[in-house]
Every structure is written in C-alpha cells, then in structure tokens.
Design goal:
Number of helices: 12
Number of strands: 11
Strand content: 5-15%
Number of domains: 2
Structural class: alpha/beta
Helix content: 25-40%
Amino acid sequence: MKDFLSKKAKSITPYVAGQQPSGENIIKLNTNESPYAPSKRVYDAVKSITGKNLRKYPHPNGGDFRESAAKYVNMPIENVFCGNGSDEVLAFAFQAFFDKEKKLSMPDITYSFYPVWADLYDIPIKRIPLNDDLTINIEDYFFCSGGVIIANPNAPTGIALKKEKVELIVKNNPENVVIIDEAYIEFSGELVCGLVKKFDNLLVVRTLSKSQCLAGIRAGFAIGSKSLIDGLFRIKDSFNSYPVNSLTSAAAAAALDDKAYYDKISKKVIETREWTQKKLEELGFYVPKSSANFVFVKPKGISAKEIFEKLRAKGIFVRWFDKDKVRDFLRISIGTDEEMKKLISCLEIIINKEK
C-alpha cells in the first residue's frame, strides 16, 4: 500500500492519552478527571442553547466564556484568550512564541504533550532534570536561551512551586515568554495569574477539565499581556476563526460563574487526597506532597508495573508511565471517598501477599 504520510507525520511520536475503559464496576483513577458532577448551572446553560442559536457561528473570540473567564481571574477581557481545552491554547502558544532557533526549556519530567508539540512545530527543547526529590530548581530556569514552560503543580509529580519562585523565573527571563500551565492550580491555592499585571512575558494557562468537572466539554483559557493575547489570536485566526462552539461557551461561562459550588468540590478533593496520601504512606509508599487532584507514588517491595496490572485486573485503573525516572511510580487520580477506600483495600491485599 502506498504511503501518503508527510515526513513530519512519519517522524513524530504522538501523545498517548490515558486509557478510557468502559463497563460496570470500573474505578477510573488514571486521567485526573473530577469524580463529581458539574454545577447545575452548566446543565441549565446548555439546555438554553436552542436550534435557532446553533444555526449561527459562535462568537469568534469566545463570547460568554471569555467574559466569565476575565471576571473569574479579575482581569480585563483583552488579557484573556479562550480555546478548546488548555491543550489547544498551549498548541497555539507554542506556535506563537517559540522558534526553531532557540531551545525551549522544560523539566525532564513534565506533561508529556510538551515535547510532542515541540517536535510537531520544530522547536528544539532543553530538558532540565528535576532534583532527586522531584522538585524544580528554579535557578536552572534563569536567563534561558529561549522560552520556558512549566506545569505548576507539575504533572505527573503533583509538586507545586510557590508564587514567589514562579515570579523569580519570570523576572529572570525578560527576553523570553514564560508559560505557567495551571491545570491543577485550584487544588493548590498558589495562583500566579496576578503576576500578568507585572510581567508582559508571562502567559498563564488554565483548564476547566479538572476543578470545573468539564473534561468532556474541552474548554481552556490563557491570561497574559495584551501583546501575548494578540499573538494567540494571530495563530487562532490563521487556523480556525471559531474554535469555541456555542455549547462550550455557555457551559464554561456557567461553570466559572458558580465559584461557590466549585470551591466546595475542590475542598472535597483536597480532603480526600490528604486521606489517601496518609493511607498510602501507612502501606509503605513514598508519596511526595501533592498539590493536584492526584498523587504520584512509589511502592516499596513490589514494582509499580505489577501493582498497575493487578489493580487493572480488579477493575481499578491508575496510570503507569514506562519511561526513565518515573517507571517506579504510579499516578493515582483522586476519586470519591468510596472509590479511594476500595483502592486502599485492594492495595492492602496486593502488598500483604508480597510480604
């Protein structure tokens, strides 16, 4: 059969998403989704979109979603950009701010989509090793030759940088765009989007997939100086003038407007995370302190891969990365209290059989 792929399509290694199992009695703790339903306001907003609305194109700049996002982060609307999930926003940012002449700096253990985008857009990268305790040494990111991208809290480690440390990285890269990916920030509390008012080279990217319980909607946004936001629009308008559809805009706006509901959800996830971390430590796991809606754990006396496979056989799905430095770890999303209790019970059986 004739091969019609371009050289680029042949050479890239695509991102591999977490498995999406289906069926009854499945406990899905492998993709960092929220275990809770979205706000009722979201359902009401989606229902309000009638056929009359859908026959027209959506607002090219995000419509109600953009307005609500600006209010949510207390920024002028010209400092906000909306897209189909933070992944799309980040892909636009890679094209808008990074070039093939300068290396993009990132941790060697981070969100695995970053190097995929870099490869796709021919951007060279510099992988900076984490410390032995999986933390970031901020001085490694001072005066980089090109841009900087850091997930904060980091993925898959869940470890967060304090706001003052993020500020030092931005301050010491005056000629580079620094992207801080805050996908999990609602479970941490160390928001940095306010620094955009101080630094015109900072772009903060957020998603509604995690804390707003809307992974199925695909909604994300960025906060930055007007010049950075204009740069994102230049890329968007050269790719798709209407990326955020009417249903997504309505659902995202409704979610961001119901902050009280989601604050309760985030608090519940944090409480369950702390309980889970304590129980895992009692079972002998090494558990770095997480500031996300997941924990990154290293078992003792049994391989991470073996636990991954034995849990999957029992219908419990967690994430195992077959990569250097993280092969001995599991990433476990925080589910409901009932789901996490079942996880701990299964782990107790698995580990006790190994003793």
